Amino acid sequence: MIGRVLDTTALVDFATRRTRYVEAVIWSRISDVAPLIIPVPALTAALAQIPAPAVPILDTLLALEVRVVDDLTASSAPSIAAILKIAGPYAAEALTAASVVHAARRRGLPIVTGNPFPLRALAADVEIDPIP
To answer: Which residues are CB-contacts of 83 (< 8 A; sequence separation ≥ 6)?
Structure first.
């Protein structure tokens, strides 16, 4: 029983049905009753990138019992900021990646992503579950 942390690319992939991989990851977590972690910055970025007809698909994901929304809070901000400092001048773009790395590290879970490069730049130690 192992969960997954979904980054922006995974959420966009699922909502737009670009591939079936993320869908398969999600449904396998449901059948295993394993958590799906959705960091709020990743959700926000995904909502900004998907077309309006795809929003209900993300709403369905958010309604699942196995999903856990990982909020960016005052208590998590210092840990995320420490990861974000590595990003330097690209900090605004890296906030989402840092929150995803933070969620994965805190829970010891792999990250489902179509773009591992910003995640690896921040944390070479996190496990990546690549979208084919």
So the answer is: 98, 101, 102, 122, 123
